[in-house]
């Protein structure tokens, strides 16, 4: 699609919302080739028009968004951006849509929709353009993740004595990241005893559900970060939506975090840079920074800071990234130790803290 005008199908059961979204995309240079009022129409229109991207409502009559995404991925794999309301139920359904192949999601505003969508139009347009560039051909847009409570198998069997003591791992990701984060944490051995902080660009109302999903798929104890939380080895915090996650202090293998509603950094909140930079300032035990798929440059400065503090750094490679923005910007700093495909990242993380065999 690079260099050409992206073509889109807009699916929503609300005529008003379809019009608002289509107008925003048209004004931004996206050619809306068709509109669908339910999932069944969306599947047929995708097959007919072969667009570069689909915006898909979660709840629609006749066929819902999940079923539509599943059929599209089976019949005519196409990048899909889900449009979800800010509710717990919609959060669960949205993650199910990601499981069956959707690339990412955008949260519909509450209140006066037309005014709010106008305010968020630049963000929506940027996400649509980013998702449109994702290659889902041949993979059905899916990244393998572990079954719930499955023991990690991609990393060698090991015991705690094989690793350096008290390591901290910070993972940053954005577009296409949820499935990638699940994949990495599902394969991370508990014996490595990491303190894990995850910064995924995601709005409030979704990060709690995201933490629950990863907790069910990982041997680590995973939860959404709360202000003042402390974690030790074997525990992981997911940055809460709409708050920066700062590492406040670190003592005796336990780190404490602080949530902040300071202005966005790199146009996002939470920002990966904030977490990585504050961690590098206070952690004096092994520190590992990982940048996964995502648009923009968030995390690049954080990777530089971790490297300067003596930490180890990894970035996801272009071939397995949904969007090779954040990993590329990180690699361009010259401070990334390893660039790896997603399936090799868990083992790559473990390798950074393995003790030398004498």
Automatic annotation (TrEMBL):
Region of interest (Disordered), ranges: 136-160
First-level EC class: hydrolase
GO CC term (a single one): cytoplasm
Localisation: Cytoplasm
GO molecular function, one term: protein-glutamine glutaminase activity
Pfam family, one: Response_reg
Start-end of Polar residues biased regions: 137-156
Post-translational modification: Phosphorylated by CheA. Phosphorylation of the N-terminal regulatory domain activates the methylesterase activity.
Annotated Response regulatory domain residues: 7-123
Biological process according to GO: chemotaxis
Active site (catalytic residues): 174, 201, 298
Domain CheB-type methylesterase: 162-356
4-aspartylphosphate: residues carrying this PTM: 57
InterPro entries, per the entry: CheB-like, CheB_C, CheY-like_superfamily, Sig_transdc_resp-reg_Me-estase, Sig_transdc_resp-reg_receiver
Keywords tagged on the record: Chemotaxis, Cytoplasm, Hydrolase, Phosphoprotein
EC number per UniProt: 3.1.1.61, 3.5.1.44
Membrane is among the record's keywords: no
Catalytic activity: [protein]-L-glutamate 5-O-methyl ester + H2O = L-glutamyl-[protein] + methanol + H(+); L-glutaminyl-[protein] + H2O = L-glutamyl-[protein] + NH4(+)
Main location class: cytoplasm
HAMAP family attached to this UniProt entry: CheB_chemtxs
Entry similarity comment: Belongs to the CheB family.
Domain comment (free text): Contains a C-terminal catalytic domain, and an N-terminal region which modulates catalytic activity.
Entry function: Involved in chemotaxis. Part of a chemotaxis signal transduction system that modulates chemotaxis in response to various stimuli. Catalyzes the demethylation of specific methylglutamate residues introduced into the chemoreceptors (methyl-accepting chemotaxis proteins or MCP) by CheR. Also mediates the irreversible deamidation of specific glutamine residues to glutamic acid.
Record-given protein name: Protein-glutamate methylesterase/protein-glutamine glutaminase
Upper taxonomic lineage: Archaea, Methanobacteriati, Methanobacteriota, Stenosarchaea group, Halobacteria
Gene name of the encoded protein: cheB
């Amino acid at each position: 699609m690079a260099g050409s005008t992206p073509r889109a199908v807009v699916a929503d059961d609300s005529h008003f919302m379809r019009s608002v979204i289509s107008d925003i995309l048209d004004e931004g240079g996206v050619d809306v080739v068709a509109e669908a009022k339910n999932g069944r129409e969306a599947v047929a229109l995708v097959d007919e028009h072969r667009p570069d991207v689909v915006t898909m409502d979660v709840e629609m009559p006749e066929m819902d968004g999940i079923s539509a995404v599943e059929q599209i991925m089976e019949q005519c794999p196409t990048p899909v951006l889900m449009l979800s309301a800010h509710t717990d139920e919609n959060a669960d359904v949205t993650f199910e849509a990601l499981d069956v192949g959707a690339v990412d999601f955008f949260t519909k505003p509450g209140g006066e929709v037309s005014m709010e969508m106008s305010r968020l139009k630049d963000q929506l347009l940027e996400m649509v353009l980013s998702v449109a560039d994702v290659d889902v051909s041949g993979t059905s847009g899916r990244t393998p993740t572990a079954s719930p409570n499955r023991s990690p198998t991609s990393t060698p069997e090991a015991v705690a004595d094989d690793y350096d003591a008290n390591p901290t791992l910070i993972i940053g990701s954005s577009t296409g990241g949820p499935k990638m984060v699940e994949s990495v944490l599902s394969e991370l051995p508990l014996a490595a005893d990491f303190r894990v902080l995850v910064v995924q660009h995601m709005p409030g109302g979704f990060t709690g559900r995201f933490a629950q999903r990863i907790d069910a798929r990982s041997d680590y104890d995973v939860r959404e970060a709360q202000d003042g939380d402390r974690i030790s080895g074997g525990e992981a915090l997911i940055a809460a939506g709409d708050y920066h996650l700062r590492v406040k202090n670190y003592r005796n293998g336990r780190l404490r975090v602080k949530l902040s509603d300071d202005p966005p950094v790199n146009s996002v909140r939470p920002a990966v840079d904030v977490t990585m930079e504050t961690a590098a300032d206070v952690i004096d035990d092994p520190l590992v920074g990982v940048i996964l798929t995502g648009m923009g440059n968030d995390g690049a400065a954080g990777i530089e800071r971790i490297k300067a503090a003596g930490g180890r750094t990894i970035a996801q490679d272009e071939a397995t990234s949904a969007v090779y923005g954040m990993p590329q910007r990180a690699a361009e700093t010259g401070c990334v130790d390893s660039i790896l495909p997603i399936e090799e990242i868990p083992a790559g993380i473990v390798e950074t803290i393995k003790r030398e065999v004498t």
